[in-house]
Amino acid sequence: MERTFLMVKPDGVERSLIGEIVSRFEKKGFTLVGAKMLAVSKELAETHYGEHKERPFFNNLVSFITSSPVFAMVWEGENVIAEARKMMGKTNPEEAQPGTIRGDFGVIVSMNIIHGSDSSESAKREIELFFKDEELVSYEKTISKWVQ
Ligand code: RTP
Ligand code: MG
Q: Subunit notes for this chain (predicted)?
């Protein structure tokens, strides 16, 4: 089953949007297999966003992501990488559609609430960067069939 790495960024944490965001992915039917609060170090931020090293916004991006804690998650499900990106909306909240996380809650591109892996290679790399194997669980939803 496919897995992706999602992260509520410092603005989402400070604005108390963790529950809202987790809820959207739960209701969609995806399975949460790992989650934690953490303060991202400068080194971790630079590695995570390494692909943007030469971009003019890189330093701002690193200082923003290290400015306050984040909520890191691993979600599992059918086509979850692409679906989560759809649910997040476009990078720039000004262009993100209503109904998407960035469209509903984001204001500016430098503070756009949530990160999500953009490919299976990124997902694998980012999950390994943020989580140890023993921090992730694997399970089937066997109880819910008795209560629905
Ligand atoms: P993310 O990696 O955070 O999930 O966002 P993304 O894939 O939608 O966008 P990406 O191109 O990977 O950019 C990473 C983050 O850099 C910031 N950014 N600022 N000032 C700008 O023009 C600009 N462009 C990108 C955004 O915060 C974006 O999420
Ligand atoms: Mg990206």
A: Homotetramer.
How far apart are alpha carbons 61 and 136 in whole angstroms? 27
Residue 16 main-chain phi, psi, to 5 deg: 60, 45
Per-residue pLDDT, averaged over 119-145, amounts to 93
In this structure, what is the dihedral angle of CA atoms 84, 89, 92, 94, given to the nearest 10 degrees? -160
**Is 71 part of any known ligand binding site?**
no
Q: pLDDT by residue (tens digit) across 83-109?
A: 999 999 999 999 999 999 999 999 999
Is 52 designated active site? no
Count of alpha carbons within 13 angstroms of residue 104, beta-carbon side:
12
Closest listed ligand to the CA of 91: 1
Query: Residue 128 carries which DSSP code?
Result: H
What is the rounded distance in angstroms from the CA atom of residue 126 to the CA atom of residue 123? 5
